[in-house]
Structures are given as C-alpha cells and as structure tokens.
Amino acid sequence: MNPLRARLLNSPTGARVLPFVVFVALTALQGQLGTASHYWMYLVKTLVGVALVWATLPAVAELRWRITPAAVLTGVAVFAVWVGLDPFYPKLVAAGEPWNPHHAFGDGAPLAWFFVAVRVLGSTLVVPCLEEVFYRSFLYRSIARADFQALPLGQFAWLPFVATTAAFGFAHREWLAGLLCAAAYQGLVCWRKNLGEALTAHAVTNFLLGLYVAGRGAWHFW
Fold first, then answer.
1. The pTM of the whole model exceeds 0.90
2. Does 76 score more than 80 pLDDT?
3. DSSP code of 35?
4. CA neighbor of 127 nearest in space, from 66, 201, 77
5. 187, exposed or middle or buried, with CB in 10 Å at 0-12, 13-18, 19+?
6. Residue from 101, 107, 66 nearest 199 by CA
7. Is residue 118 one of the residues assigned to a domain?
8. DSSP code of 27?
9. 193 in a structural domain
10. What mean pLDDT value characterizes the chain?
C-alpha cells in the first residue's frame, strides 16, 4: 500500500481534512501560472480530488451517496436561492475576470466545451465529496467534541451549526447564498442522520448551477 494512503487510512482527521486542503491549495494556483491555468488547473485539481477521495474512501464510512426526494428537493431549492438572490446583496469581493473558456479558447471551440464539461462534472461529483466530508463530517463534529468520531453525525448543536455555516458561507464570494446553502445542507444532515443526502443535495445544486452558467452565459457564478 502507498505510504501516504496508509497514513491517511490510519488518521480519521487526515482522511477528512487533507483532501480538502489540497483541493483549496490547487484552487489558489488557478490563474497564477498563466491565463490558461485558470482552466487546466481546474482539470488538475479535479483529477487530484478524485484520487484523494478514492484513497481515503475506506477511512470515511459516511461518504456514501444517498439519492432521495428530500435530497433532490434541497439541492433544487438551494440552486434557486443561489441564483435568485444574486442581484440583491453585495458580494464579499469585487468580481474578477469570469471563468469563461469560450473567451479564452474561442467561442464554441471544442477545448472550451471540454473545460466547461470538466467544471460541471468536477463541481457535481468531486466538490461535494471534499466539502461535505470536511465541513459536515469533520468540522461540525470537531467543534462539538475533540473526539469528533464519538459524536453521531446528525446530532444537532447550536455552536457547531452556526460556526460551520459561517465558515462555509464566508468561504464564498456569494456569502449570503453560501450561508443559506450551508444551513440547508447541515440541516439535512441533522434531520436525516446521514451525509449521503447532503452529498446528493450539493451535487444537484452544483449541476443545475453549471447548466445555468453554460446555458445562460452567467459566467460570473464561476
């Protein structure tokens, strides 16, 4: 077995934190290695994210998808809130150059559509695994109890609920939508007592947002 994987499998904290930290670090490199790195770095971090999720899967028992009506409806509602609220509140930072591969590689170019597909698939299938495991499995429970695995996944407590919601929300430029999004996903975990439905809700939100961005040219969301 790979030494790094062996260490992660023996570290409940590392298995839930390291994949997220690596993904965030790679996100920070987007655009720092030339204009095109906005796009190919997203491909790199998505592939790295897949590898890290696969490597840590045996150590994260709660990382099991569950598709239910409640999960799908939550994901659709969060998407509607994310898009619907957008014109009505100030963002944390000014908008930078939109993530628009059609502008970078030519309108309708095959490479542009390839990177659009990468982003939609990455945000739908990889991002929910990394973020839900970090925020709702690790961070929420570790705020409530040092031995976080001893806390049942769906146990409600005000301090970790508020702190995790704030951490997730203010990690996004669209902070208000992010706060409501985090509260919805965390509430789903506390209600349904599993992480799998939050994974599905998050995936549905991101998939619908990806289709909206690509279909309507609403690149500012990316």
1. yes
2. yes
3. T
4. 201
5. middle
6. 66
7. yes
8. H
9. yes
10. 95
pLDDT-above-70 percentage for the chain: 99
Indicate the residue type of 60.
V
Is residue 198 a contact partner of residue 123, using CB atoms and an 8 Å limit?
no
Residue 31 is predicted with a pLDDT of 87
User: How many folded domains does the chain comprise?
Assistant: 1
Which pLDDT tens digit goes with each residue over 102-136? 998 999 899 999 999 999 999 999 999 999 999 99
* Residue 34 DSSP label: B
Tokens of 169: 């929300």
| pLDDT interval class at 162 (50, 70, 90) | very high
From the number of C-beta atoms within 10 Å of its C-beta (0-12, 13-18, 19+), residue 113 rates as: middle
Q: Which domain holds residue 155?
A: 63-221
CB-based burial of residue 138 (10 Å sphere; 0-12 exposed, 13-18 middle, 19+ buried)?
buried
User: Is position 89 within any domain?
Assistant: yes
State the Cα–Cα distance between residues 100 and 218, nearest whole angstrom: 9
Which pLDDT does position 34 carry in this prediction? 87
Q: Are residues 178 and 172 in contact, defined by beta-carbon separation less than 8 angstroms?
A: yes
Distance CA 136, CA 160 (A): 9
Does residue 10 form part of some domain? no
Question: 77 by DSSP, 3-state: which?
Answer: helix
